[in-house]
Recover the amino acids of this structure.
């Protein structure tokens, strides 16, 4: 099992425990973590599962595909540590992952 | 401090009137002008292309043509879409008033098209009517990256949630004023008195458009997408006149704002934004029309559509009364159910394959959002209006991918506020007559909806 900590914009924390295989987005959505909309259901087509990856995890979550980059590049609140959480697969490597969610999804 | 210096060289480009656009450019603004009179330039004639009154199951499937507005106005489109979804999910219509085109009917295939801009281009137009390249008003909805991205980035902040937070109070205040001014226990037209009034006020706010002239925004927007003879303008000359007036007005506003401090309204953003302040006149006007139209009939028709849907599904209205916290979810379901823009069109850049069909470069590919939103293979119980459904946000009405509607949160906010305030005042917004639907296979909406208000006891 993998533990992921979601921190909302206002500081509220939500810790979830999930098995590997799904995406970080799914980990949030199936556990009722607020702040992630996932309007497209996880197909990298809406950018409403936007999260910020805590610094030390950035390398571990892997590279952005061109499609993810294209979607994120249009995002108003894009930062260097932005990712679309539907594109990050949950693996054992990510046990203890910390992400923050933006104030808004758009 | 560049804004302190008047951009005389740019403004002077705009001082030249009359606008150098000819009638054909106006006709094909988005490629959604009248289909029957693109060629002739005359008034629309009664059409041999109409499918009204026909049984989609009693005709050869290759004769089915969704493009003609007849079945949309007559509310007969559902069984046509159903047959195609089931028997020809990627369907070629060889002959129509708009020429040959592919129809994409299923949710998954629509997603594939929408998210593949390198295969399916938004240029030269996203409407089903072909535009003439030299006569089209460019706007970023019908552009591909990188130009699309540059322009969208400039304007989208005005409708980003951070800014919407600032607008919420004003919107609510306006909704309350409108609702409080409505007659109770007396029949009136919901479209005119609520749907149009509210969305027009919203647009005027976004543009910082003179409030007293706001009805012009509605008229110009409707004129831009109307089919002459369909009730908005009688003929192309009238449409051209309306749009001329629109352009002149917006050019004046640009000239004023370019010399002022950058503001938070759309015009100021365009006049000052890096990527847009030197844009050619045609592009400015194209983007203005895009923003007016994008924010106009879609939201309007969703406001109306929600009232109709709840009346047609009284158990859902009961659910809403019992549980007003369902409003947010209901708003997504209303937008799915209404699908205010029935389709969006793309053009294949290369030969490609979709669901086993071979599409050739240059061919027209039409994503029927109205069909995808009823696809039971992707949406559970898709043909039921369920205000508490799970995954309500996963509908196609806003599109997906790079072009996903940037006004989506604004639309949702307006709809949520409208329903919150309705529920505080009225037991029922009762539909008391038949709706009149828009004559269009693009704009899926209502010309009128007779209602009567029942107050809370």
């Amino acid at each position: 099992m993998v533990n992921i900590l979601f921190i909302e914009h206002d500081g509220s924390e939500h810790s979830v425990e999930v098995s590997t295989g799904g995406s970080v987005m799914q980990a949030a959505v199936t556990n009722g973590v607020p702040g992630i909309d996932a309007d497209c259901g996880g197909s990298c087509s809406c950018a409403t599962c936007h999260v910020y990856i805590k610094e030390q995890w950035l390398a571990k979550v892997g590279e952005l595909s061109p499609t993810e980059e294209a979607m994120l590049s249009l995002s108003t609140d894009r930062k260097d540590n932005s990712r679309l959480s539907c594109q990050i697969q949950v693996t054992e490597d990510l046990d203890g992952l910390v992400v923050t969610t933006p104030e808004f999804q758009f | 401090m560049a804004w302190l210096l008047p951009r005389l060289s740019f403004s002077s480009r705009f001082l030249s009137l009359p606008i150098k656009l000819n009638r054909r450019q106006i006709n094909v603004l988005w490629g959604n002008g009248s289909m029957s009179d693109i060629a002739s330039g005359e008034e629309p004639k009664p059409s041999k292309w109409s499918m009204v009154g026909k049984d989609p199951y009693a005709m050869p499937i290759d004769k089915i043509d969704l493009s003609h507005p007849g079945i949309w106005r007559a509310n007969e489109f559902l069984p046509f879409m159903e047959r195609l979804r089931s028997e020809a999910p990627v369907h070629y219509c060889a002959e129509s008033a708009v020429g040959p085109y592919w129809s994409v009917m299923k949710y998954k295939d629509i997603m594939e098209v929408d998210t593949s801009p390198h295969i399916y281009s938004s240029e030269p137009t996203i409407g089903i009517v072909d535009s003439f390249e030299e006569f089209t008003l460019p706007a970023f909805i019908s552009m591909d990256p990188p130009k699309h991205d540059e322009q969208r980035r400039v304007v989208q902040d005005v409708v980003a949630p951070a800014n919407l937070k600032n607008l919420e109070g004003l919107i609510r205040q306006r909704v309350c004023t409108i609702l409080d001014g409505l007659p109770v226990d007396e029949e009136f037209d919901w479209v005119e008195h609520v749907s149009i009034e509210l969305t027009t006020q919203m647009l005027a706010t976004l543009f910082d458009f003179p409030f007293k002239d706001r009805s012009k925004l509605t008229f110009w927007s409707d004129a831009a997408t109307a089919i002459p003879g369909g009730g908005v303008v009688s003929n192309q000359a009238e449409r051209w006149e309306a749009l001329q007036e629109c352009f002149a007005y917006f050019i004046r506003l640009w000239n004023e704002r370019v010399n002022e401090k950058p503001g938070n309204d759309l015009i100021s953003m365009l006049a000052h934004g890096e990527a847009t302040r030197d844009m050619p006149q045609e592009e400015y006007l194209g983007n203005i029309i895009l923003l007016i139209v994008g924010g106009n009939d879609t939201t309007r028709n969703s406001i109306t559509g929600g009232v109709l849907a709840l009346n047609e599904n009284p158990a859902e209205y009961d659910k809403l009364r019992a549980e007003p916290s369902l409003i947010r979810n209901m708003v997504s379901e209303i937008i799915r159910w209404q699908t205010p823009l029935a389709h969006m069109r793309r053009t294949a850049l290369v030969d490609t394959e979709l669901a086993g069909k071979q599409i050739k470069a240059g061919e027209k590919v039409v994503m029927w959002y109205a069909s995808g939103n009823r696809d039971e293979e992707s949406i559970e119980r898709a043909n039921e209006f369920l205000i508490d459904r799970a995954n309500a946000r996963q509908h196609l009405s806003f599109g997906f991918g790079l072009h996903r509607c940037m006004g989506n949160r604004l639309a949702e906010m307006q709809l949520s506020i409208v329903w919150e305030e309705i529920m505080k005042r009225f037991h029922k917004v009762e539909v008391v007559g038949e709706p009149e639907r828009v004559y269009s296979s693009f704009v899926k909406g209502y010309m009128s909806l007779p209602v009567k208000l029942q107050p809370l006891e």
Remarks:
- The two ends of chain B are 59 Å apart (CA to CA).
- The longest strand of chain B covers residues 343-348.
